[in-house]
Amino acid sequence: MKTRILLIGLIIFLVNVISVNARETILICSDNYVNKKGQNIFSFPKGGGKPFGNDVELVLFTTNKLDLEIKAIQVKNYKECFPKMFNGTVDIMVGYEKSEERSKHIIFVPIKREKDMYSFLISKKSKFASRVDDFKKSLPSVDEVIQIYITKFTSSYDHYFSEDEENLGKLYSVYAKLKSCHEARKGYQSVYVSTHDMTKIKEMTKSTETLIFEKAPKIKDRSDGIWDRRTRVIPEVEVVQMQIDGQPVIGITKVSSQWDVSNKKTCDLMIFYLETLVTGIVKKMGGTVEKKSDKDF
């Protein structure tokens, strides 16, 4: 019962999404930084593309709440970023120490961590300098910062670079889970998801994906990577290890073919979750998703 209440609460939250607007771009400066433990803090892919790492997730945690799109500027040494911050060529940085000289040109917003203090830096010449209070309100809590920095990021697809990407990732994950529900008991008398329902689920998912691509066309180029990352099947032993390590579970677990009432309830809730997620996406994007009605005669 508690699980159902929590899930319904989460679904209600997802429906209340903000109205869609053109996203402003905010420029962040960093070098390519992998720490001594081999952890990606702010990594740029060798072949180009979006960055990834713990600092990237920290920034996205904040900028996604403010509906800002980040563009990363790479430098060989992080010290090269400061002149760009001083003259307003770039807008933000993260993590660097405060000094009297730097404080003349940069607003340092403290970020509390478990054992030390980090900083979110905003250029005083940036147009976003007037939104310091918004940034402060959008920063993660101490516990959220801890979670960010114990997570291992190995690809840009471990991040959501916008709310639309997040919705697409959720859509793919829920669809993949429901497909697993369907295939687990396909051909049996008692099923988790019927073939009839699976057809409607597929139509709803495809229509919603099409709507997202129409309203946010830039996402289409990253959709295959989002699909691969969010629908990969994770072995139970790997899930347990992730939970022990405090890592987020990115992907889905396969549904067993052995009949289990709890599996049936989970699959039913996932259908409800999908319908509510789609409703929220349509409400945000102002489009329509085709839903075919069954004959009632």
Quick recap of the structure?
This protein has 297 residues and is of the alpha+beta class.
What descriptors fit this protein?
297 residues, D-Maltodextrin-Binding Protein, domain 2, 11 helices, disordered N terminus
What does this structure look like?
This protein has eleven helices and seven strands. Helix 7 runs antiparallel to helix 11. A hairpin with a 5-residue loop joins strand 2 and strand 3 (40-42). It has a three-stranded antiparallel β-sheet. The longest helix is centred in the last third of the chain and has 25 residues, at 261-285. The chain folds into two domains: 24-158, D-Maltodextrin-Binding Protein, domain 2, CATH 3.40.190.10; 163-285. It has helices at 2-15, 54-65, 81-87, 100-103, 132-138, 142-150, 163-184, 195-215, 223-231, 236-245, 261-285; strands at residues 24-31, 33-34, 40-42, 68-75, 92-94, 106-112, 117-123. It starts with a helix and ends in a 12-residue tail after the last helix. It has 297 residues and is of the alpha+beta class.
Structural class category: alpha+beta
Count of strand segments:
7
- Beta content comes to 5-15%
The CATH superfamily label of the largest domain reads Periplasmic binding protein-like II
Q: What spatial form do the alpha-carbon principal axes imply?
A: elongated
By DSSP (H or I, 4+ residues per run), the number of helices equals: 11
The ordered H/E elements are HEEEHEHEHEEHHHHHHH
The CATH class label of the largest domain is: Alpha Beta
**Average pLDDT number:** 86
Number of domains: 2
Largest sheet geometry: 3 strands, antiparallel
Widest beta sheet: strand line-up: 5-7-6
